[in-house]
Specification:
The complex is a heterodimer.
Chain A (H helix, E strand, L loop, with lengths): L2 H6 L3 H27 L3 H8 L3 H9 L6 H10 L18 E10 L7 E7 L4 E3 H10 L1
Antiparallel strand pairs in A: 1-2, 1-3
Helix pairs in contact in A: 3-4
Chain B lengths: L1 E5 L4 E4 L3 H10 L7 H16 L8 E5 L2 E5 L4 E10 L2 E11 L7 H18 L2
Parallel strand pairs in B: 2-6
Antiparallel strand pairs in B: 1-2, 3-4, 4-5, 5-6
Classes of the chains: A alpha+beta, B alpha+beta.
């Protein structure tokens, strides 16, 4: 467990607050990434939205709550659409250290190898565990 | 150095003395803005997960390879990018609670000095 996750896991309130802040920073960063990619400035977004640059600044910095409607509108302005999905939270205690391991993602459509450090996604297995299963079979 | 957080793309490290400056900076955050402490960490977590922060509201390039991760209440973590044990890393030299918009030259100098000491120790 890292110092960061230790701090977050001090209380359920802190965990909830961290989840909120992560979503806010993720949304803002996704918008900034798209803005950079499309060469669109904060002023351009403000002009198209019909709002002040200060408003856009506040929305993107997280000091003003961004509604889902505003998020969708900004994405639309940038030529993107928002993809929403809920993922079940996973406990870090379930994470397996895979230092220096190579894992293979087992999906029918994609077969790829990556270096990873930790993994708590059941779709991924270490080469060692695959070899172990093959031997057992 | 102590490891603060290991994300998918990089690891965040604290130099000797970072923790003391971090605690002091956070102690000065007004009581009604304590959620800023969480915001600060959420931004650091994003940095570790993605390897970069695009928004200038989240991270500033202060020049000369020194960067500041920011929170809206004025918390700043000054540091630099490097490879540690073969892994991309962001090394925090110190934290402050900033009162003014512009970076204090003394803070940038402090970060540069910490980096020079780190490089000397690491023989880089």
């Amino acid at each position: 467990m890292t110092q960061l996750t230790e701090w977050v896991n001090t209380s359920p309130e802190r965990q909830r607050e961290f989840a909120e802040e992560r979503l806010i920073v993720d949304a803002a960063e996704e918008i900034w990434t798209a803005m950079e990619h499309e060469g669109i400035s904060k002023s351009d977004v403000a002009r198209i939205l019909g709002k002040s640059k200060a408003y856009v600044t506040q929305v993107l910095s997280g000091s003003r709550n961004m509604t889902l409607r505003t998020f969708a509108t900004i994405a639309h302005i940038l030529g993107y659409e928002v993809e929403v999905s809920l993922k079940r939270r996973t406990s870090e205690a379930e994470w397996k250290p895979l230092t220096d391991a190579v894992v293979v993602q087992l999906r029918p459509s994609i077969l790829s190898a990556h270096d990873v450090n930790v993994c708590n996604d059941g779709r991924w297995q270490t080469i060692d565990s695959m070899v172990g299963k093959a031997k057992a079979a | 150095m102590e490891e603060f957080h290991r994300g998918e793309k990089l690891t965040i490290w604290l130099t000797q003395g970072t923790r003391a400056s971090w605690d002091a900076a956070e102690a000065d955050v007004p009581g009604n803005r304590k959620s800023c402490l969480t915001q600060f960490r959420a931004r650091l977590a994003r940095l570790a997960a993605f390897g970069t922060l695009r928004s200038p509201d989240h991270m500033n390039n202060e020049g000369d390879g020194i960067y500041a991760v920011k929170a809206t209440c004025g918390l700043r973590a000054y540091g630099w990018f490097d490879q540690v044990n073969g892994r991309r890393s962001f090394i925090i030299s110190h934290c402050i609670l900033k009162r003014r918009q512009a970076a204090d030259p003394a803070d940038l100098e402090r970060a540069r000095n910490a980096r020079a000491q780190y490089k000397q120790r690491a023989n880089k």
